[in-house]
């Protein structure tokens, strides 16, 4: 099972700082138009890296330490053809609405290794890295590019682009996750929740400045009689009845976190995501899974769990 992001800084993700890297090497950012060309998985004999953003488009957030608005998101890379791929260079570029480059950074393989990151994608490993920046209200897009070579010597490039929205996410009422849901005959029904519930704190060496974490398994089980096609997932934390953090994930991201190969949860099937969340001033978590039935009718299923501010019971 893979680690799911919680809206807080994830210790399992490589967080890319906005600093100058690889001095002395001349590199050019990809033009904004370059992201429009979709990279197809046309040759199963070559590596193919699924390059998925955590959210797209991405809403603004307020950084607690500076009380300024900005964006924080994540990208996930996973090789899906069974051909190992090694990252040689990772690029990150910010653009304005007209496609002008506002900031451009890149990271060599050596620098990625120095930051504690893996560079080889194989055996279904999930490479995840994060970006975060503020004080750039003119920024409209952030693009990321991974250059590398597969185990058969093919030089390959993969990329993705995220739209940055100039507003924060609308608040979701707590009652959204407390209203009971009933299954309907002939339709999918997803039981959503966390195990254990409630979730006690536990001490873990996952971050130098945060010793206390909540550890739990988020699950999505189809107890209905028809398939459910996932379109996205949402994790929201509340302090009392006030929304504190709202994090959304794409269907592809949830597939990678839970080790699935497609977006369909069949009747009787259960998806699980091993999850960690650092201690924060929150008391409850809400999970919402969105998708459709086989006829394309939109559906959503919710669950909630309590976050206790005391250590796990012996």
Overall description:
- The protein is mainly β.
- It has 2 helices and 20 strands.
- Strands 1, 12, 13, 14, 15, 16, 17, 18, 19 and 20 form a 10-stranded mixed β-sheet that branches. Strands 2, 3, 4, 5, 6, 7, 8, 9, 10 and 11 form a 10-stranded mixed β-sheet that branches.
- It is globular and about 55 Å long.
What is the terminal separation in angstroms?
25 Å
The global form is: globular
* Arithmetic mean of pLDDT: 86
Oligomer category: single chain
**SSE string:** EEEEEEEHEEEEEEEEEHEEEE
Strand content: over 45%
Give a short account of the largest sheet: 10 strands, mixed
Number of helices: 2
Query: What would you report as the Rg, rounded to the nearest angstrom?
Result: 20 Å
Helical proportion, percent range:
under 10%
Provide the structure class: mainly beta
Q: Total number of β-strand segments?
A: 20
Question: Which descriptors would you attach to this protein?
Answer:
314 residues; ten-stranded mixed β-sheet; 2 helices; 53% strand
Question: What topology emerges from the helices and strands here?
Answer:
Elements lengths: L2 E2 L9 E3 L32 E5 L4 E6 L4 E12 L5 E11 L5 E8 H6 L5 E2 L4 E9 L6 E10 L4 E14 L21 E6 L3 E9 L2 E13 L5 E12 L2 E9 H8 L5 E2 L4 E9 L5 E9 L5 E14 L3
């Amino acid at each position: 099972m893979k680690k799911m992001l919680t809206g807080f800084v994830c210790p399992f993700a490589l967080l890319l700082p906005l600093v100058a890297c690889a001095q002395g090497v001349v590199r050019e950012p990809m033009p904004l138009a370059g992201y429009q060309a979709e990279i197809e998985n046309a040759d199963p004999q070559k590596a193919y890296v699924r390059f998925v953003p955590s959210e797209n488009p991405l809403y603004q957030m307020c950084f607690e330490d500076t009380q300024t608005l900005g964006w924080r998101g994540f990208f996930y890379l996973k090789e899906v053809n069974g051909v190992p791929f090694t990252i040689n260079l990772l690029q990150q570029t910010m653009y304005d609405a007209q496609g002008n480059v506002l900031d451009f950074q890149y990271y060599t393989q050596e620098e990625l290794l120095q930051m504690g990151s893996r560079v080889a994608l194989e055996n279904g490993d999930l490479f995840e890295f994060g970006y975060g920046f503020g004080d750039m209200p003119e920024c409209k897009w952030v693009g990321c590019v991974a250059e590398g070579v597969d185990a058969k010597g093919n030089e390959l490039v993969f990329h993705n682009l995220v739209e940055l929205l100039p507003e924060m996410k609308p608040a979701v009422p707590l009652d959204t996750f407390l209203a009971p849901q009933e299954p309907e005959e002939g339709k999918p029904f997803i039981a959503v929740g966390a195990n254990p519930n409630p979730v006690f704190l536990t001490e873990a060496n996952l971050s130098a400045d945060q010793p206390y974490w909540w550890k739990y398994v988020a699950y999505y089980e189809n107890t209905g009689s028809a398939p459910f096609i996932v379109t996205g997932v949402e994790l929201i934390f509340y302090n009392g009845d006030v929304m504190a953090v709202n994090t959304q994930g794409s269907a592809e991201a949830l597939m990678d976190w839970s080790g699935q190969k497609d977006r369909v949860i069949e009747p009787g099937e259960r998806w699980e995501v091993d999850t960690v969340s650092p201690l924060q001033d929150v008391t409850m978590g809400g999970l919402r899974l969105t998708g459709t039935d086989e006829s394309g009718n939109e559906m959503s299923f919710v669950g909630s769990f309590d976050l206790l501010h005391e250590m796990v019971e012996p």
